[in-house]
Amino acid sequence: xxxxxxxxxxxxxxxxxxxxxxxxxxxxxxxxxxxxxxxxxxxxxxxxxxxxxxxxxxxxxxxxxxxxxxxxxxxxxxxxxxxxxxxxxxxxxxxxxxxxxxxxxxxxxxxxxxxxxxxxxxxxxxxxxxxxxxxxxxxxxxxxxxxxxxxxxxxxxxxxxxxxxxxxxxxxxxxxxxxxxxxxx
Length: 185
Prior knowledge:
alpha+beta, 4-stranded antiparallel sheet, 3-stranded antiparallel sheet, flat
């Protein structure tokens, strides 16, 4: 095992019409299934890809199969002969997404295996980084706000605009004056 020595949890590879291999270094994974791979077309439309074979899926190559976690790369499309490489203006986003589980069972007076313990600690840090990346992309209020901001319910905001009351609380409004259409979020 190794330490988690980078806060990087996501990388973006740019299409150029010929590249089909995209490294996810410097971050590491325990298993091929620990990746979320999203294709972004030139218009910004995102499509989540599946691990597998063929022209619309991706495959994973780990740098080491014995020293996990490991860095590596993905190949998109997995079938590089029949598939079409990402064009200029397209990109591929590769993000580590591990299951939110802790699978280590330490037995009283059992054997001590540092690699097992370090792997569990690594997984905990990976989970924290994964959640922080999501939190960093969320809407947040200033640190000085003392009130929790909660969106109106889905049924209350359906077909309406996001606006703010005179006291700064998010509300669903039938008027677009001062609001942002809910469909743009």
